[in-house]
Design goal:
- This protein has 363 residues and is α/β, with parallel strands linked by helices.
- The protein has one domain: TIM Barrel, CATH 3.20.20.
- The protein is 37% helix and 14% strand.
- It is built from eleven helices and eleven strands.
- The strands form two sheets. An eight-stranded parallel barrel has the order 1-2-3-4-5-6-7-8. It has a two-stranded antiparallel ribbon with strand order 9-10.
- 44% of the residues are buried.
- Bound molecules: beta-D-mannopyranose.
- Beta-D-mannopyranose (BMA) binds next to loops.
């Protein structure tokens, strides 16, 4: 009888972790939020992508956003239908890509239960509503919104449960809740909850999803880039080595190129050392220059810094008509994006699939 190697012993998250470890020896991956849903000149066409329309290849990493799932909504906060989202997540996995998920849930204290945001003025009721500093406390055990929040977590769990391949395999996912928590623009931000409350919030969600059997999640912690983000600061709200597999930073260029480069460089130096000391995967979990006001940005600003570090990936935010962070064929940054695409150490889908082949053979 032919002996079969049992490949089912390792969880999907362990396998993803190993794949990421191997890939980052080769280079860093490019990621894009909401890539297959819409771009600057199109929306909801099958198999389309601004990135693919520029360079001919899919992003290695795609980001998806669950905001709205907690309300039982059919579409997320950016109007992406959840059924379509599940399809695209499965598709990206099946084409060999890597999936990451974020969640910007409504504010459980100020949102209107059972209703939409109609009648409420942005940011009232949203993740960005920071008028009340007891939101986290209110959803923890014993709080007035604890039961409501349990319903919200259940809806996340139900969505995740649908993310399986046609042969029933769970899809590995980099799950990145409660991000940019060292700023104070989300209801889980630094000035809105104590360290203990933040950690309890993290644990509540992680424990719930773990209890539901999701061993396919790779948990990512990602505070925002900041001049004071040293190791001690990073550790302050860090949920713990046993809870985190991927350590990230979200860092956009909002000001001058020089300030961005200096801060990103310093933060990545800290992050990659932090990761090496603890056996974690480092990544630039969000970044971008809004509307690519400097079209050379990809190769003049970003990659010279990233080339210095062995990070797993960087992900730019969505291409929304009024605010975009990825390339588009009609925009002047497209040739510079292609220049970046041609770099050997910047990895898109085709390249990571070659490595995946190797990785499968080695395991
Ligand atoms: C923000 C903006 C918003 C969007 C949110 C969640 O950065 O892009 O328009 O609703 O992310 O994707």
């Amino acid at each position: 009888m032919k002996r079969q190697i049992d490949r089912t012993r390792k969880s999907q998250s362990q396998r993803l972790m190993e794949r990421l470890e191997m890939l980052r020896k080769k280079g860093y991956m490019f990621g894009h939020q909401d890539d297959p849903f819409y771009g600057l000149t199109w929306d909801y066409q099958p198999d389309s992508s601004d990135v693919k329309n520029v360079c001919g290849d899919w992003p290695a990493v795609m980001g998806f956003e669950l905001g709205g799932i907690e309300m039982g909504d059919k579409k997320n906060l950016d109007s992406v239908p959840f059924t379509r989202m599940a399809e695209e997540i499965i598709k990206h996995h099946e084409r060999g890509g890597i999936v990451t998920i974020s969640w910007h849930p409504r504010n459980p204290l100020t949102t209107i239960e059972g209703g939409g945001l109609a009648g409420q003025k942005f940011p009232e009721g949203t993740a960005w509503d920071v008028t009340n500093t007891t939101v986290v406390k209110s959803i923890l055990e014993g709080g007035s919104k604890h039961e409501l929040f349990k319903t919200w977590m259940q809806r996340v769990s139900d969505f995740l449960a649908g993310l399986k391949t046609s042969d029933g395999q769970k899809i590995p996912i980099i799950f990145r809740p409660w991000h940019e928590n060292t700023g104070s623009w989300f209801w889980w931000g630094e000035k809105l909850c104590t360290v203990e409350e933040y950690k309890a919030l993290w644990n509540m969600l992680q424990d719930k999803l773990t209890a539901d059997g999701f061993d396919n999640l790779l948990w990512a912690y990602s505070p925002g880039m900041a001049s004071n983000l040293d190791e001690a600061k990073y550790l302050e709200r860090y949920p713990g080595n046993d809870r985190i597999q991927l350590v990230g930073i979200d860092g956009y260029q909002w000001g001058s190129k020089e300030d961005f480069v200096t801060q990103l460089d310093a933060n990545l130096a800290m992050l990659t050392k932090f990761a090496a000391d603890r056996g974690k995967i480092p990544a630039l979990t969000e970044c971008g220059l809004k509307n690519l006001t400097d079209p050379t940005w990809w190769t003049s600003t970003l990659t010279p810094v990233l080339d210095k570090y062995q990070i797993s990936y960087f992900l730019v935010w969505r291409n929304y008509k009024e605010e975009w962070f990825g390339p588009s064929p009609s925009k002047p940054d497209a040739p510079y994006f292609n220049e970046m695409y041609a770099k050997k150490n910047v990895l898109f889908l085709k390249e990571i699939n070659n490595s995946q082949y190797l990785w499968q053979r080695l395991n």
